[in-house]
Amino acid sequence: MNDEELIIAxxxxxxxxxxxxxxxxxxxxxxxxRARRRIPGVAGALAVVAGAAVAVTALVSASHPASHQPSxxxxxxxxVKQADGNIYVTIRQFRDPAGLQTRLRADGVPASVTFTGQxxxxxxxxxxxxxxxxxxxxxxxxxxxVTIINPSALPSGAGLQFASSVQRQGAVPGxxxxxxxxxxxxxGS
Length: 189
Prior knowledge:
Layout: H1 3-16, H2 23-63, E1 68-73, E2 77-82, E3 87-91, H3 97-106, E4 111-115, H4 132-135, E5 136-141, E6 144-149, E7 158-164, E8 175-181
Parallel strand pairs: 4-7
Antiparallel strand pairs: 1-2, 2-3, 3-6, 5-6, 7-8
């Protein structure tokens, strides 16, 4: 039997088959079955997206409790302005000092942020001793030092200078904070 004979035999058999189900119903049923087979794949994809959204929300909530105001957060450092006006600064790595300086200034802290060997020559020490303890305090959170700034305790005409002696990437920073005389060249105000 060749191909031509086979096609003729199939056509003859097809005319002898009778079905109570219409062709439209058969096609419709096939489409419904294929659609149901796609649902687990789509549901799985949606579950992954929903899980990622929940994880991100949980991370944001954990790092920003309800009492905190909006903040800027980078892997290297975090600045969070509290409802009471205090500002919490956590430095994990001393990278992007210009970004940290910009954020502190945006939160109302006249600041200069540099590496120790690259201190801003426009920054002059603020006269007086013992004042820094009223402006800055440090406490441990999650095994990291958190510098707490009380901007309302800054003496008139004073600003803060943050300087780190660590310049290697990944090293734990040793950051010093001093009172300096505020000026546009030093602290931006």
